[in-house]
Amino acid sequence: MNDFSLMDAIECGIVKLPRVPVADNIPGGEMPMFRNLWEHIRKDMPKKGRGKAAGLDPLKLPTRLQTALEALYGHYEKTYHLWKESGVQLPPCFIVVCQNTAISKLVYDYMAGFEHPPREDGVTPPPFLGKFPLFSNYDEYGRQLARPRTLLIDSEQLESGEALDDHFRQIASPEIDRFRREIVERTGDRRQAENLTDQDLLREVMNTVGKQGRLGDSIRCVVSVSMLTEGWDANTVTHVLGVRAFGTQLLCEQVIGRALRRQSYDLNEENLFNVEYADVLGVPFDFTAKPVLAPPQPPRETVRVKAMRPERDSLEIRFPRVAGYRVELPEERLSAVFTADSIMELTPDLVGPTITQNQGIIGEGVDLNLIRTGDLRRSTLLFHVAKHLLYTKFRDPGEEPKLHLFGQLKRITKEWLDNCLICKGGTYPAQLLYQELADMACEHITAGITRSLEGKYQILAVLDPYNPVGSTLHVNFNTSRKDRWETDARRCHINWVILDSDWEAEFCRVAESHPKVQAYVKNHNLGLEVPYRYGSETRTYLPDFICLVDDGKADPLHLIVEIKGYRREDAKIKRSTMETYWVPGVNHHGRYGRWAFAEFTDVYRMETDFEAKVEAEFNRMIEGVTHG
After folding, report:
1. How far, in Å, are 474, 533, 572 from residue 449 at the CA level?
2. Cα angle at 106 between 103 and 110, to 5 degrees?
3. Is 290 strand, coil or helix?
4. Are 250 and 281 in contact (CB under 8 A)?
5. Are the C-beta atoms of residues 101 and 227 closer than 8 Å to each other?
6. What pLDDT, on the 0 to 100 scale, is given for residue 269?
7. CATH classification number, 9-281, choose in 2.60.40, 3.40.50, 3.90.15, 1.20.58
């Protein structure tokens, strides 16, 4: 027996050639995003255990995971039809290896379909047929297939016995009889052969994937946790997606190894094996990995950042701690005001790479793209986005959606799609069907509708019931960060500003030298948090600075300042939240002074921008007094 390393086996051609991402159309990354997918989605995935996934919606998988599935499935679809045209009787196999059983169930339901639970009115919606037709376990009429195309195999699924349809034993009776005969031949135990459990059958389905005339010959996709790493000998695997952490190269080799068993060992005319490929995403396999030694580091100097009391207490800045917003939307005529921040750009940076080049150490490369995603009519997209807007934003808890508003919402949605949706870098409008992106689009549209209500309907900030007010008095922490600014004792309650960029240092200089700034503070361990919606989740935004500005009125203006260079999609949503909800809501509250928001995007224009913002707020105050 020879001990062949994986690299030796690949170079000799006795296994398939794995192709992994080597480039994509997202600039600046250390490696292609889909090479190590888990690092980009881990914080959005459920923790260990099927119970953690209870109540989670499979359609809300992270956008980048959906894009990876879409890209790899698009190439699988081509491979499937190529095999079929070539007369291959068995389908190619697509495997997904997940971090835990909660994730595996969500991915399985997303790919193969699932039954919806009954609604509050007792009506059960039709099943979701699965995102990918070739992997769906349902027919076009919503009936579950007796012989599944996609298999979920993990410890909890084996224990549940729910993986196989009731008609499976009847439809697959020839293969089950063959399995019984094999058990008798192998063990001599006829009782065991006659009393097969669903768990026994499920294991046999898994073990015979890619074997003609066996229980697993219909399987096209296997979603697993860790049960495919050893002893699985299917040779029809062509595509692998890793949705888990890979701490070592050994684990990467084990998972990729499940795809490398060749279909054919026949020699070609040149007395060599024909090349066979396996395309892999999400497994950070390195063909040339070497151990990295970390030298010991000396301890770093620490400083205490704190409020200087009592000598600077006159510079204290207080702020409301907002937990949410209450907006009363009109029931009659709806309109929307869309601004530059209403624009939503679909880019590879947001959705994941739309072109990923897979390459092995030798052989041909392949580009994985999203071309099949673009095949969606505009009217279909408009209907789905408007419907999602109605059901998520214009529906009270426990109530039916306000269907009489659908026509108006459809009109506003069309205006937004026509004027505010921009697709770049190979993205498509159809990707708004991803639930996270649909939620983001609905946030933009709802903000536009809310913006049109300013001055007509009140927007109220809902405060934290236990800690409604925050203050610079409570800042007190240690840090070893070297990038810091020692503050002017006449302008800041805190002794140090911890810097995240050179731009922030420039802002400190401008604020301390500006005649209208009475005090300022960096929002670092201060507690100023702004709740906002990003896609389908609630997040918290931490603005950079608060300034107290003398604009000629008895009480100073509280100016929240954001220092922003490159503006991604979340920056637009943060600004829109501040201007549409937080600032109007706090100002309507009336107990915490006057507030405004400014975003500085050019370090060289900061001083003039600051002057312009202060002057604008001053002019607005004068106008309010003269017209009051």
Report:
1. 38, 16, 16
2. 140
3. coil
4. no
5. no
6. 84
7. 3.40.50
- Alpha-carbon distance of 41 to 602, in angstroms, equals 31
pLDDT for 109: 94
Among 113, 115, 153, smallest CA distance to 135 is for 113
Q: Rounded to 5 degrees, what angle do the CA atoms 543, 38, 79 make?
A: 130
Longest dimension (CA), the chain: 100
Q: Tell me which H or E stretch contains 546.
A: strand 545-549
In the numeric block, the tokens 């009776």 are attached to 173
Q: What is the pLDDT of residue 621?
A: 40
| Residue range 370-385, pLDDT digits in tens | 887 777 889 999 999 9
Phi, psi for residue 390 in degrees, rounded to 5: -60, -45
Domain extents in the chain: 9-281, 305-325+459-626, 329-357+372-451
| Whole-number pLDDT of residue 605 | 59
pLDDT averages per 10-residue partition of the chain, 628 residues: 69 85 86 92 80 76 94 94 91 93 92 87 86 94 88 71 58 68 71 72 82 87 73 85 88 85 83 88 77 58 90 95 84 85 91 90 83 84 94 78 89 96 92 92 92 77 90 92 92 94 83 89 95 86 92 88 76 90 90 89 60 56 39
Is 259 within 8 Å of 95 (Cβ atoms)?
Answer: yes
H or E, element range at 600: strand 594-600
Written as six digits, the tokens of 291 are 């151990």
d(CA 542, CA 393): 25
Q: Reply yes or no: is the peptide bond before residue 18 cis, omega within 30 of 0.
A: no
What crossing angle do the helices spanning 173-187 and 198-207 adopt, rounded to 10°? 90
Please report the pLDDT score of residue 523 as a whole number: 95
CA distances from 600 to 94, 218, 565, 606 (A): 48, 58, 8, 6
